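Retro notes - structure team

What went well: the batch runner handled both jobs without manual restarts.
What didn't: labels got mixed up in the shared folder, which is why I'm recording both outputs here explicitly, each with its sequence directly above its tokens.

Job 1
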Amino acid sequence: MTPFEQSVADAIEDATAALDHKVGLGTIRQVERDTLAMLIAAAIGPGGEERSKATAAASLAAEAVNELLNFAREGNQLDNTAYSVSVGENLADAFRLAIDAQGGPEDEQEAQFYAAALRYLGRGVAA
């Protein structure tokens, strides 16, 4: 990892920790996550869009995996709150961002899955 990549990773980790503390739930609300992603993209500058999307995808996937692990470990604490974030939505959005970061779907099957993820997320067409 280059020094630049390490400093960006450190900034993301610090910002995530700060937002987690602010929210007090151990998760980042969608608006705060999107704002953080935009600030990171602006700091990286031109040519960093794919890396920014990859970082956002990794963050969403990690948050979803964390929720699944918490549920597996702790179970459903309350009747209607099995998850504090939408695991399916986070994974679908992480998939979308990962495909965007790689420059689009690699084959027809991936394109169909990508289109299904967009429909699920209510986006209809590729961004």
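Job 2
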Amino acid sequence: MLRTAEITAELTGLENTSHQLYWRSRLEFTLDCFICERTGRTTVFERGAEQAQCSGSRSGFQSHRTAGRIAGFDTTTGRDRLAVRALVDFWWAPFSDTRDDRKAAAPTSHPWVRLHLAYYCPEAKESGTGSIQTNLVRPYHLRCKHCDGPLGVDRETPAVRLLDGQR
């Protein structure tokens, strides 16, 4: 069954930075994978890719392709905020985990997401990257790896919402 998840996040405090900050079109999302029949797998999505990459597991299953893609990716930039909304399509089918017999869910029972950012440091004249994820202590202050200047503040956990199949 095709499912769609909406993932949203926002950074604030951008008025304190001189860096050019933007969302990268890559994200990681925890899903229950019907291919390797494991729950809670980190799945990597890249905008434009027709398939996602499941991390597999540490006990014998290798990383593999899976049915998933970024169906929509919108960003909003304001004077003091930077927001993102991603729609992630993924295929899901019921199964029991091959290792601990846990029932699969869509999305997984504890969804986790990591969103990637990139920026340009005018002081160092170099690019850098960063990320935010659901399991960070908030507020989380992002800083430049080159000059240690402020980039923005992640005040709220990225939201994950399963849509009913109609967009």
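One thing worth noting from job 2: Residues 2-163 form one domain.
We'll revisit the folder naming next retro.
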